[in-house]
Design brief:
With 437 residues, this protein is of the alpha/beta class. The protein contains 14 helices and 18 strands. The protein is elongated, with a radius of gyration of 24 Å.
């Protein structure tokens, strides 16, 4: 019976979860594959100080602080790169391929920025590349787009792609606490990093959307080309107004085919309470896909964490091991297409939606008239004005909702409004997403 040797580089949350699952599920993995997956080497800087408990489950494997020892190990056929980032991780992956090793990675930043190049290297080397864990760890969305619904054409994809943001927003909604309070709690619980900018400013979700766009549409889109807004300006009052409008607020990654081209964005938006996305709470991810022929499908699960992401890594290790044993390293492209075409998404200015505008003002007569005049000059129709009771006239919040308008017109209007002397801060403008389906 053959066996396939595995090397694990990185023993953080994902690496530790991967090792734990490989140990606990070893018998089931062998039964499913018909051969063994054998851990041959593990690499982590922590091994130089205090050995992680999970490493003791594999007493006979090579232990090293040098990733080069793993990629050159003669018994390792698959290298799992689980260190993250785009610096050392890129070296690990390229060197593994140069040594003829197949690669499994959970690295969204690297695959969003360099994935097509790495795939070309893998093809030339005749090895396998797998990256299921790079997006929505516990949801097999890669497999869905790559194989499960690959016979369809994707019209639209919208997802909650960052569990940290979703935890913060849903706790703000539930408890009425401000973002900084919930963020500090998320950091204590391990949901958010000490520097939370990758999550709350949307960069993490943007990298994931770049990968999903490649899978769904066959395009290579740089993350920097995707429109981005984070959640720093969302406050509990926005949830109060959103509920009055029959909506909630989520950070969503959106990809839509339009007559003008492919529109991609990561931003907070009002989502109807009647939709399934609105019920996604806590650190969960969810992705809704609309196909031309297969219509709507929905995928939900834990988006991060040692165990859910570890399952995705181990599943990739199993898939790659099968391909090695069966001699078919190019069975299915990790990007679902034979080659990706270079593509720049269309400007967010093309988007047409109803909009939510939230203001904080020093109250005085004529405010609504001044704002309405600016909207009228931009050919934007006002739909409603909402104001919750407030006794502080020096910091009075209220909301104006707009009839469907182009993003370009709304932005031009907001820019003009920002110079008005009664505003305490620039208006907050959020699109109102239509019901899914």
């Amino acid at each position: 019976m053959p066996s396939i040797g595995v090397g694990i580089v990185g023993l953080g949350n994902v690496g530790s979860g991967t090792l734990s699952i490989l140990h606990e599920n070893a018998r089931q993995i062998q039964e499913k594959l018909g051969f063994e997956l054998v851990v041959k080497a593990i690499c982590s800087r922590s091994l130089a100080e205090r050995e992680p408990a999970v490493a003791r489950l594999f007493p006979d494997v090579l232990r090293t602080t040098r990733w080069q020892d793993v990629v050159s190990h003669p018994g390792v056929r698959i290298v799992a790169e689980l260190v993250g980032g785009t610096g050392v991780a890129a070296e690990i992956v390229s060197e593994a391929i140069r040594h003829g090793k197949s690669v499994v990675t959970a690295n969204k930043e690297l695959m969003a920025a360099e994935g097509p190049r790495i795939w070309d290297e893998a093809i030339r080397a005749g090895i396998c590349l797998a990256m299921e864990a790079s997006v929505a760890g516990g949801i097999p969305i890669h497999a869905v787009l790559r194989e499960g619904i690959s016979g369809d054409r994707v019209e639209a994809l919208i997802g909650i792609l960052n569990g940290t943001c979703n935890y913060i927003l849903t706790e703000m909604e539930r408890r009425g606490e401000p973002l900084d309070v919930i963020l500090a709690e998320a950091q204590r619980l391990g949901y958010a990093e000490a520097d939370p900018s990758a999550d709350i400013d949307g960069y993490d979700a943007r990298s994931k959307l770049s990968i999903l766009a490649a899978l769904a549409y066959g395009v290579r889109v740089l993350p920097s080309d995707i429109y981005l807004e984070g959640i720093r300006r969302i406050s509990p009052m926005d949830f109060s107004y959103a509920h009055r409008l029959g909506h909630t607020i989520r950070l969503v990654g959106t990809a839509r085919q339009t007559d003008a081209g492919l529109l991609l964005a990561v931003r907070p938006a009002l989502v109807p309470l009647s939709t399934i996305l609105a019920s996604v709470d806590g650190a969960y991810n969810a992705i809704w896909v609309k196909g031309v022929h297969g219509a709507d499908t929905f995928y939900y699960g834990k988006g991060a964490g040692p165990q859910p992401t570890g399952v995705a890594v181990v599943s990739d290790l199993m898939r790659v091991a099968r391909e090695i044993v069966n001699g078919s390293p190019e069975r299915v492209s990790p990007f679902a297409h034979d080659r990706l075409r270079e593509y720049a998404p269309i400007s967010i200015h093309h988007q047409v939606r109803p909009y939510y505008l939230r203001f904080r003002v020093v109250d005085r007569p004529g405010i609504i008239a001044a704002l309405a005049a600016i909207l009228a000059s931009a050919h934007i129709s006002l739909e409603a004005v909402l104001q919750e009771p407030c006794t502080n006239k020096q910091d009075l919040p209220f909301v104006i909702t707009l009839e469907p308008s182009s993003e370009r017109a709304v932005r031009e209007a907001v820019e003009k409004m920002s110079g008005l002397d009664f505003l305490l801060e620039p208006p907050l403008a959020l699109p109102m997403e239509p019901p899914l389906g």
